[in-house]
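User
New here, explain this?
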Amino acid sequence: MRKNSALIILVYITLGVIWLNLGSHWIERLDKDTPGEDMSFLYDYKNIIFLIVSGVILFFLIEMYRRNLSSMEKSYKQLFEGSIAAIYVLDRSTYRLLEVNEIMVRKYGYSRKELLDMTALDLRPPEEQEKLKEYLGSEQPEGRATGVWLHQKKNGEVFHMLISHHHTVYQGQPAFTVIAIDIEVYVKAEERIKELLDVYETVTSVTNDVIWEYCPHTDKLHWMNGFTEIFGYEEALRGDTREWILSKIHPEDRERVEQSMEESLAQLSNSWRCEYQLQCADGTYKYVSNQAFILLDKNGQAEKMVGALRDITVRKNYEQRLLLKNQMLKDIAWNNSHELRRPVSNISGILDLMKADAERNQTDLSLLEMLERSAAELDEIITKINDSTKNVDLKN
């Protein structure tokens, strides 16, 4: 605005100087060319013409300025009313609302008339009012976000707004123009993310899972919480490439694990899973189960892998002890069956001899038959024990 006013004054002075100089010079020449006549009256005409012409020029310049100013006011008004943010003007001394836009009316639930009878303090919950007074009463940088503030609707609902303000003059009064953006959705989303992170940290601490992320294009591997606690690698000792983690896999397992991962990436599988031994920072090995999801980009190529590395050493040790016990039980059953078969064979032989002798001496054969049946049943039991131990699958 100041530039436009200065431009009008500059144009007026420039044209005035030009007209006065040219007019005086023209009258002096005319006076010399007509020595017998008095041409001094032309100075009055020159001044009158100057006033008329300058008045017309000033009128057009002022009209142009007014139209420009009117257009700017209209643009500002459209911006004020059409903004997606709540905008209001408040008096610097009384904090009374001087102007509000339509978003303010819809956001807070008050009518425009009600808002214009209120102060900025009325839009805040009681616990924020004193804080706002202290803020407005001190010198603060303007034009930037001043932080997140709690606001209150007519129905008592409290929500978060991101505020920025500017010094201005409204209808001759020192004022602040305030822009307020509703960020309640983002605040709740952030709170939800924090809750999920807390849940995640709790779950990972209970399950010994370490979440990791790997990008094949950049060969960058990122470990979440828990990797140092479980495997002992401090950040200074921890690499962030695929080669580094592969170098920590037991030599007996590395080729199998690497081939398995390559096949999953090449086939664009949805998931990958593998069990192997991973070396800890102290040189010992732990059994781990590694499972990951493979995420694809818009071109259908593997963009990243997101997985969970779980320490299953306790389970593996238990399985090994169980296998050992099963082997011991199998050996015991096998030895016992063979130990039992020997006396059974002796009994069977003795029975044959006794049976032949009993037929010659006409002895009662019923007792011998009962003993023979018992020996046969015992032999059948031993055979079943042997068959059962042969069918034991120690690996499963």
Summary: The chain has a mean pLDDT of 78. The chain has four domains: 2-80, 83-182, 208-311, 324-390.
